[in-house]
Each structure stands twice: as structure tokens, then as C-alpha cells.
Design goal:
33% of the residues lie in helices and 21% in strands. The protein is α/β, with parallel strands linked by helices. A 7-stranded mixed β-sheet has the order 3-4-5-2-1-6-7, sandwiched between helices. The protein binds S-adenosyl-L-homocysteine (SAH). Its EC number is 2.1.1.67.
Length: 196
């Protein structure tokens, strides 16, 4: 399969912010993702009270869903609007604090304490800032990362995982010559080489 036409494409942070501003967010789904429901047991693997990471989280409703099940959720998203929308969509009170390690970085935390959403680029984060995770829900994240940044993204994600963590990854399969993306087409062979 030829992914040549997508390899050079770059979507800037500015463009993502614009999508949020314009309400051009067709990727957001009001209903919890059916694949998370289907594979929840794989993610949890019999464990409770997990730390679960949502890379490039947007205002994914699954964050509320997992928090309500007693897990702690950490997300990262460049759009402050997305994060504020998340809390207001679910009528969740929150507070806002700066993140000293990240210039301009902010953290929005639910008053209940179990949802912490970082407003910054994912590439500003490291395990020394946000710790490590027992589970990852990656939907609209790897496939939204610019193709040139995939290696860096995958190395970071591996670094953020605890030894026995589970990583659920949703990709999309289509002919990459027909759409410019995102979502980008990430072939299975590339996923294997990125994550091992
Ligand atoms: N995972 C979410 C959103 C998918 S769209 C969902 O399932 O609905 C991808 C999101 O990543 C957008 O909201 C965009 O603003 C955000 N984003 C893009 N680049 C980013 C980066 N470098 N760091 C953090 N967030 C980013």
C-alpha cells in the first residue's frame, strides 16, 4: 500500500485550534465508542482504580465514562476550548492551574479529582510530569498525529506506560490516495514497527 501522498502532510496546532473554533469537529462523537465498550475487559484486565491516559483527547465522552467507573483519567489536548467544553457538556465543576514544567501549560482538574486534562502539546509531556499509566485509549490520536511525528509519538507513549498496561488503539483503513487525512492511514506493518 502506498502512503506516499500522506507522508509529507502537516496539520499545525493553529489549524486544530481553528477547527475547534469553527465547530469543525466531525471527529467528536456524542455516544461512547462501541469499540471501547467491546474491548473494555481487555483494557481493564480484571483491574480496578486504574490510571488511564487519553492522548489528543478532544472532549471525548469516554473520559467521563471511565472516571464514573472509578478510574482516574488524564488527557492532553491543545485546544482549551475543547477541555472547557468537556467539563461544561457534563456539568462537571473543575479548577484550573498552571503546569510549572511547561511554559503556557495549564491543567484542568475536575473538583472530584479524578479527571485531569492538560492543555498543551503532547510533545511537552513526559512521565516525570504526568506519571505512568495502566491503560491507554488511543482513538483519533495516532491517526491524527502528523506522519512525520509518529516515531516521536510512539516513543513517548511507550515511555508513559507501566509494565502491565494495556493500550487500545483505533485506526481507520482506507485508500490513502483518496483522502489527504487526518485521520491518516497507518498501516498495520507501521504500527508493529512503531510499537514493537
Ligand atoms: N481523541 C479525540 C479527539 C480526536 S481529534 C476523540 O476521540 O474525539 C484530534 C485532537 O487532537 C484534536 O482535538 C486536536 O485539537 C488535538 N491535537 C492535535 N495535535 C495535538 C498535539 N500535538 N497535542 C495535543 N493535542 C493535539
Amino acid at each position: 500500500s502506498d502512503i506516499g501522498s500522506q507522508k509529507e502532510r502537516v496539520v499545525t496546532e493553529e489549524e486544530w485550534l481553528q477547527k475547534w473554533e469553527m465547530g469543525n469537529i466531525g471527529f467528536h462523537k456524542e455516544q461512547g465508542h462501541p469499540l471501547l465498550q467491546k474491548y473494555l475487559d481487555v483494557l481493564l484486565n480484571g483491574r480496578s482504580g486504574l490510571r488511564i491516559f487519553f492522548p489528543l483527547c478532544g472532549k471525548a465522552v469516554e473520559m467521563k465514562w471511565l472516571a464514573d467507573m472509578g478510574h482516574s483519567v488524564v488527557g492532553v489536548e491543545v485546544s482549551e476550548q475543547a477541555l472547557k467544553d468537556f467539563f461544561s457538556d457534563h456539568s462537571l465543576p473543575y479548577c484550573e492551574e498552571p503546569v510549572p514544567e511547561i511554559s503556557g501549560g495549564k491543567m484542568f482538574q475536575s473538583t472530584s479529582g479524578n479527571i485531569s486534562l492538560y492543555c498543551c502539546s503532547i510533545y511537552d509531556l513526559s512521565s516525570s510530569i504526568i506519571g505512568k499509566f495502566d491503560g491507554v485509549w488511543d482513538r483519533g490520536a495516532l491517526v491524527a498525529v502528523n506522519p512525520c511525528d509518529r516515531q516521536r509519538y510512539a516513543s513517548l507513549m511507550i515511555n508513559l506506560m507501566e509494565k502491565n498496561s494495556s493500550y487500545l488503539l483505533v485506526t481507520v483503513s482506507y485508500d490513502p490516495n483518496k483522502h489527504k487525512g487526518p485521520p491518516f492511514y497507518v498501516p498495520e506493518s507501521e504500527i508493529k514497527s512503531l510499537f514493537g
